Amino acid sequence: MRSGAAADAVEVLSTAHPADLADLFQELSEDQRAAFLATLSPERLALLLDHLEPEDRGQVVNQMPRATLARVLDAADGAVAADILHSLPPAEAARVLSLMSQASEVLPLLAHSDESAGGLMTRRFIALHKEMTVQEALNYLRLRHPDAEEAYYLYVMDGNNRLEGVVSLRSLVVAPPNTTIENIMNPRVIAVAPGTDQEECARIARHYSLRALPVLGEERQLLGVIGIEDLMAVEAQEATEDMYRMVGIATDERALSPVLAAVRRRLPWLTINVFTAFLAAFTVSRFESTIAKVATLAVFMPVIAGQGGNAGVQTITLVVRALALGEIGLAQARQVLLKEIGVGLVNGLALGLLAGTVAWAWTGNGAMGLVVAAALWGNMVVAGLGGALAPLTLRLLRLDPALSSGIFVTALTDVMGFLLFLGLATIFIGRLG
Fold this sequence. Notes:
Blueprint: H1 6-13, H2 18-27, H3 30-38, H4 42-51, H5 54-63, H6 66-75, H7 78-87, H8 90-99, H9 103-110, H10 117-120, E1 126-128, H11 134-144, E2 153-157, E3 163-168, H12 169-174, H13 181-184, H14 198-207, E4 212-216, E5 222-227, H15 228-246, H16 259-285, H17 288-293, H18 297-324, H19 333-363, H20 366-396, H21 405-427, H22 429-432
Parallel strand pairs: 1-2
Antiparallel strand pairs: 2-3, 4-5
Helix pairs in contact: 2-4, 4-6, 6-8, 7-9, 14-15, 15-18, 16-21, 18-19, 18-20, 18-21, 19-20, 20-21
């Protein structure tokens, strides 16, 4: 690309995997990217867009002439084309659709949210009739030449497009040629409605070990199929979103995002964090006289607050993951809270004894050791309770359980840690000097 050998570039790029094309695209300068895209056919461009990060995909789409974009979307998977059209202003999307020859395939998908089963599904699937024989089905597959993912499951439908069963490719291949499809199909099909959230779709597919998930209408019409690649991408996306939201980072930020964009996304939550930090500082200020009398107290304050914050983040991570995977729900809230309180009590006792012993040995004051131990024990219980309660409360309010839970729980453990430690120190001030 740098030497201007366009013909050689075309030869290399024509055989590269689309994921490798996306990696290469990340490394190129703006000028090189333009030259790079010019070497790709509409079919290769469609595959590249499917593998690019949303931010890079948006840049490519925005710079692409609309007639070119229409040809690319004609070659793209329907779900990818629908995602891209959803990202355009309505007037631009209508213009591109008017130029597409496959618009009728994409239009039904546009009625669904990007993050729903309907937004993820593709209309590329193999349909069979239950009265077909195995040999007739194999002949049909040879005529269709489907790719591996498309043919992994074969869907059996009646004359009204209602799903009656499913046949795996393996079952079809090993069955006697004269056997009818009805005799080898599985009538108990795991499926979802088009409005099902994408995270729930991924959870269902994982739970039942499915490589594809059919999407059915109200009368069991087969509207489309969600493939394993899309389901895996949802799992990765949702895991990233949960991880980012726990610490107040926007879900679309990347390691190489522009500085100003990163600042704009992070600053609001960091601003909130400043106010929660001042709340902790205000708590400390209420005990200025205590600290003035026993300055050594300041040495142990970070231990109490820091240990509570770490324990709180552990609990949040566990509970958010369990909620995301459907392992627990609000019905199990009481069990989760009791369990985390129990963990806090046991861990707090062990760590409190350890920290208290160190404080006693350091200061030579047994009362100081007891105050440190008791405060740390109490703050570990607060961490367990707060770490479980924050995501569960957010789920109750129908918000994302990961929504900056870490920031709020850290603030809670800071405030309560200081309050417990300095409050106990005030009570026993006469024995600490």
